[in-house]
Design brief:
Shape: globular
Strand order of the largest sheet: 7-6-5-4-3-2-1-8
Number of strands: 8
Strand content: 5-15%
Order of helices and strands: EHEHEHEHHEHHHEHHEHEH
Number of domains: 1
Structural class: alpha/beta
CATH class: Alpha Beta
Distance between the termini: 13 Å
Radius of gyration: 17 Å
Largest sheet: 8 strands, parallel
Number of helices: 12
């Protein structure tokens, strides 16, 4: 039985003061929702403040990205060793990182292997662009992203990975995939690709989320699908009532 999972990706939003305000506004309600793993992913500068507020709660904390080296002359980067002192989760391969910063599958894989070394739990994002979607390339693109991005892990660690299917054409556009279509990609593309790497048992055990214009209004539709185990939430994670509704839908 896969435990539902909801992560809020705040992206480049909220100052340290605003982070404290948002967490304070949603913390009690989130704590009262059982049966679902909840993770907040604020910007790097707010991780320390968020960590202090969440340390005695059931709410997990994650970062939005990281570099793959432990330390060194990499100006402006954040290492897994630094993050390990603050959080347990890490978003890797988000479409915005792929599109704006040129992160390809091989680089996502380097980061994933670094996350394994430092015992961080990754939320690995995969998904096709609008052009690929309209060219009927969803299966080929997403399968390759999974197989190249998740390669080379040890079997026990592979079980901990969370995968997020985020069709790029649905992120921040207000245009969500249908729940049935998203479930079909998870069932017929993502889990088979994982099975090729780590076997069918692992493929069925790994939690796969949907992301892309998830709201409090449509979350139940996605979370009721048999192969979708929760959501990676963008803009709605900055709205207290919406995010709580999404977590309740997953639970």
């Amino acid at each position: 039985m896969r435990k539902p999972f909801v992560a809020g990706n705040w992206k480049m939003n909220k100052t340290i003061v605003e982070t404290r305000e948002l967490i304070s506004a949603m913390e009690q309600n989130l704590n009262e929702i059982n049966g679902v793993e909840k993770v907040l992913c604020p910007p790097f500068v707010s991780l320390q403040a968020a960590s202090e507020l969440l340390k005695n709660t059931e709410i997990g904390l994650g970062a939005q990205n990281m570099f793959w080296e432990e330390k060194g002359a990499f100006t402006g980067e954040i290492s897994p060793a630094m993050l390990k002192e603050l959080c347990n989760y890490i978003i890797l391969g988000h479409s915005e990182r792929r599109a704006y910063f040129g992160e390809a599958d091989a680089l996502v894989n380097k980061k994933l292997l670094a996350a394994q070394k430092f015992d961080l739990t990754p939320i690995v994002c995969v998904g096709e662009t609008l052009e690929q979607y309209e060219s009927n390339l969803t299966g080929a693109v997403v399968s390759e992203q999974v197989k190249l991005g998740l390669a080379g892990l040890n079997a026990d660690y592979a079980l901990r990975i969370v995968v997020a299917y985020e069709p790029v054409w649905a992120i921040g556009t207000g245009k969500a995939s249908t729940a049935e279509a998203a479930n079909a990609v998870v069932k017929d593309v993502i889990r088979p690709a994982i099975a090729e790497l780590y076997g069918e048992q692992t493929a069925q055990a790994i939690r796969v989320l949907y992301g892309g214009s998830v709201t409090g209004a449509n979350a139940k539709e996605f979370c009721s699908q048999p192969d979708i185990d929760g959501a990676l939430v963008g803009g709605a994670s900055l709205k207290v009532d919406d995010f709580i509704a999404i977590v309740k839908a997953a639970a």
